[in-house]
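Backbone shape codes:
***
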Amino acid sequence: MTPALEATGLGRRYRRTWALRDCSLSLPPGRVIGLLGPNGAGKTTLLSLATGLLRPSTGDVHVLGRPPRSAIAEVGFVAQDKPLYRSLTVAETLSVGDWLNPRWDLALARQRMARADIPLRQKVGSLSGGQRSQLALAMALGKRPKLLLLDEPVADLDPLARREFLKILLDEVADSGVTVVLSSHLLTDVERTCEYLVLLAASRVQLADSSEALLRRHRIATGPRAQAATLGSEHRVIHAEYSANRASLLVRTEHPISDPAWTVRPASMEELVLAYMSTNA
């Protein structure tokens, strides 16, 4: 099965600074994929490379099995700043999409506007932040894409508008089977909507797997600080916190921790993500 997005040794450098480095991953099709990471981790850079807006400094990236610019007709993209012409009406904006895209589904785009209760005659400049986000999503979905890339699409929305945006997004996934890569720093939204996670930190890929697999392989172990090194020799310690005599370790393990000196419990997604975000690997 052809990956939705595949990168090998992908990197992008701005003079001496690497925005993304040694990025190798293969994202499965037909999934809703969360792209997480702190500010400056390389999320926007990765999406810009995948859309062909940037060229790699090192490595390769393929989208739907092809170079990004060859797949552009089958990729929908909502940028973080949602660039829309403020002087146009909603109807005129949808007509521009119809003019620019050979597979444009005008009926679908108008249906999305009706569902969001956005009048077609209204000027884009007079729309609220939530309405502009819905219009940007409708423009991306109107292409009938096979891959939808979303760069922090709900960052500036209130909780109600965020919920409605994500609901419409998931409805479209259910209807069309489009693969979605959702970049966000809002872990609760990603945890609720995404079944596969990619975590960037220090400009590198730290995690890339299904949510279920990641949670299954990580545990929080609490026990005597004096025995932390022994546990670390048997399991990979991702993050450690110490008090005078106790240690709390997030460990990645492929087999159970059987030492009775340690109390073991499943890691939450928040604990897992924050631990990897803090790494300098």
